[in-house]
Amino acid sequence: MPQLSFQGQKLFFSTTGTGPALLFLHGFCEDSRMWDAFVAHFQKKYQVVRVDLPGFGQSEPLSGTTIREMAGAVRAVVKELKLPPFVLAGHSMGGYIALAYAQAWPADIRAMAMIHSHPYEDDAEKKENRLKSADFVMRHGSDRYVAQMIPGLFAPDFAEKNRSIIKQLIAQASLYPPEGIADALRAMYQRPDRSEVLRRASFPVLFLIGTEDQAIPAELSKQQTILPPSASIHYLEGVGHMGMFEASEETIEILEEFLRDLGLEGIERD
Ligand code: MLT
User: Fold this and answer.
1) Is the shortest distance between the CB of 215 and ligand 1 below 6 Å?
2) Which long-range contacts (CB under 8 A, 24 or more apart) does 141-150 make?
């Protein structure tokens, strides 16, 4: 995987395929491997870029980082690749970073996909839990933290039938340094409301919402859908917070249709 240095820390990314550019941002305690099925599908027609956000996958943590700074890390990749305006897709925390990116560099964005994400600040209870979790992960380690956190991201029925997927994600996330997980928790704790970015969006926005999402309830997600001037809204029935795994084909199809409707379809290559 190629890497660059961002604020003195290693930042890993990858690019594959050619055509209109798509950039994927993973969520909290995930890494760029979560997009494997998306890359396999979209690389036939698109340039697909993905980043291991600081502290996750192979990328090193950025001490005391913020969501805005993580957007800056993404920008460093965009500059390194000399990427033309692109479609930015973010899952959950990746969506928070996508909004911070669009706020700072709106001209880079052709369209955005908010996948199980939203623009709002944490409420008081969530903020308190972030700090407790940061403390827990630093005291007990990444493995104990992610083992209790990751299963709850999936709809119970899916989790019951797909234990191996969850086991694999836990095994991957157990290797992230606790500092990086705690940094991301504190970054989310501090992040401001970015509703205005959606309200003023000059680009179309796709929303993917899981009806059984416990991490970001569908009711909260729904509120944002009226904000952008141009929105495409999809509810994934019976899906939790992880549509990329729980409804992989449907999620890919929805994104593909969104891109086609925007006239952003690339030419298929073998
Ligand atoms: C994520 O999946 O990135 C997290 O659930 C986001 C959050 O905790 O707000």
Assistant:
1) yes
2) 141/178, 142/173, 142/174, 142/175, 142/176, 142/177, 142/178, 142/181, 143/170, 143/174, 145/178, 145/181, 146/29, 146/170, 146/173, 146/174, 146/176, 146/181, 147/174, 149/29, 150/29
Q: With a 6 A CB cut-off, is 93 part of the ligand 1 pocket?
A: yes
Taking only the tens place, the pLDDT of each residue in 92-147 is 999 999 999 999 999 999 999 999 999 999 999 999 999 999 999 999 999 999 99
Ligand 1 centroid vs 266 CA: distance in angstroms?
31
Mean pLDDT of 68-95: 98
Is ligand 1 within 6 A of the CB of residue 188? Answer: yes
CATH number of 3-123+193-261: 3.40.50.1820
238 C-alpha to center of ligand 1: Å? Answer: 19
- pTM value is 0.97
Write the pLDDT tens digit of every residue in 207-235: 999 999 999 999 999 999 999 999 999 99
Are 41 and 17 spatial neighbours (Cβ–Cβ below 8 Å)?
A: no
